[in-house]
TrEMBL record:
Name by which UniProt lists this protein: Homoserine kinase
SUPFAM superfamilies linked to this entry: Protein kinase-like (PK-like)
Record lineage: Bacteria, Pseudomonadati, Pseudomonadota, Alphaproteobacteria, Sphingomonadales
Amino-acid biosynthesis recorded as keyword: yes
GO molecular function, one term: kinase activity
Family: Belongs to the pseudomonas-type ThrB family.
Limits of the Aminoglycoside phosphotransferase domain: 28-252
InterPro entries: Aminoglycoside_PTrfase, Homoserine_kinase_II, Kinase-like_dom_sf, Pseudomonas-type_ThrB
Biological source species: Sphingomonas insulae
Statement: the UniProt record of this protein carries the keyword Hydrolase: no
Key words of the record: Amino-acid biosynthesis, ATP-binding, Kinase, Nucleotide-binding, Threonine biosynthesis, Transferase
Transmembrane segments: none
Length: 317
């Protein structure tokens, strides 16, 4: 459960009164999924909404970038949930001392074991996103890009070995190899940077929602494909799912295209993505207070993926 900030019924009822046409509060439930922000499912007399209170890793100064991006994508027909504006036209509110937004609820479920057919449409959705970001001139550097991984590794230090012996040296060596081979000259665009299965809502093989844009930034475009591959092509423990990786790539390639140089770079981009998610998970694993209402994510599931990419250099051929 990710609920860091409790919202009282009285405060929420008052908050909803800032908006026209959203109705009166009927119920609000903390949402179990997610690790970054506090999310509530809010039902009113007229509709259903998501209430998000922005926590630790989200810098309030970045919220206009994220919300402008959502508006841009929604205007181009992508199934993303724009933030709702109050009657003064304000989307970013304050609630219980945190920045907060009321967000349109989208139907659909997130998958834990996608099939190849579902991966293909999800890959195509990323391709459509990369098409739709053209013309969006907002800018945000990746605060968890390749240059940020070594400082994070150093901050975790040999505490990593408390997760599994030898983890610090393993990641130190893998990161050195990734840094040396990083493809700095590939095309850059706005990317989602965290399009895991839990951030794609689906009904059958249809994508009904792309959510959680709070790591979106400008970075190497093919890195987005690599992030998706690391999170979709494996089960939650890190074992590969037959046919899913190739289907994801085929869906993306049909929708957007992938140059030879981008495809060649995917193994190093994927290993970089493994290191990025292993390190943020490890940091949270080592530093989340025992009483926090959040389910920590397993860093070692990303070590297994890293091992798999090392053993399968042909994965993207
Ligand atoms: N617009 C939305 N429509 C429907 N469900 C949503 C929406 N936004 C978030 N959710 C639900 O809330 C969960 C957590 O949201 P997410 O943005 O991923 O949180 P976090 O940023 O904390 O990871 C999602 O997995 C999904 O179940
Ligand atoms: N996707 C990342 C962490 C961010 O979690 P999310 O719930 O915001 O997608 C991971 O799984 O490590």
């Amino acid at each position: 459960m990710a609920v860091y900030t409790q919202v009282s019924a009285e405060a929420l009822a008052g908050f909803l009164r800032r908006y026209d046409g959203v109705g009166d509060l009927v119920s609000a439930k903390g949402i179990a999924e997610g690790v970054e922000n506090s999310n509530y499912l809010v039902d009113t007399t007229t509709d259903r909404f998501i209430l998000t209170l922005y926590e630790k890793r989200v810098d309030a100064g970045d919220l206009p970038f994220f919300l402008d991006l959502l508006d841009h994508l929604a205007a181009r027909g992508l199934p993303v949930p724009p933030a709702i504006r109050d009657r003064a036209g304000i989307a970013i509110q304050q609630l219980e001392g945190r920045p907060a937004c009321l967000i349109r609820f989208l139907n659909g479920v997130s998958l834990t074991q996608p099939t190849p057919a579902q991966a293909a449409t999800a890959g195509a959705a990323l391709g459509n996103l990369h098409t739709a970001v053209a013309g969006f001139d907002g800018d945000r550097a990746n605060c968890l890009g390749v240059g940020d991984w070594r400082p994070l590794l150093e901050r975790c230090g040999t505490d990593l070995d408390r997760i599994t012996p030898g983890l610090f040296s393993r990641i130190d060596a893998a990161l050195a190899a990734v840094e040396a081979a990083w493809p700095h000259t590939l095309p850059v665009s706005v990317i989602h940077a965290d399009l895991f299965p839990d951030n794609v809502l689906m009904l059958g093989a249809r994508v009904t929602g792309l959510i959680d844009f709070y790591f979106a930034c400008r970075d190497v475009r093919a890195y987005d494909v690599a992030v998706m591959h690391t999170s979709w092509a494996f089960d939650p423990l890190g074992a590969p799912l037959a046919g899913v990786g190739p289907a994801l790539l085929a869906g993306y390639t049909d929708a957007f295209g992938l140059s030879g140089a981008e495809r060649t770079a995917l193994p190093v981009l994927a290993k970089g993505a493994c290191i990025r998610f292993l390190l943020t998970r490890a940091w949270d694993w080592l530093n989340t207070p025992a009483d926090a209402l959040v389910t920590r994510k397993d860093p070692l599931a990303y070590l297994r993926r890293l091992d798999w990419y090392d053993a399968h250099p042909e994965a993207f051929a």
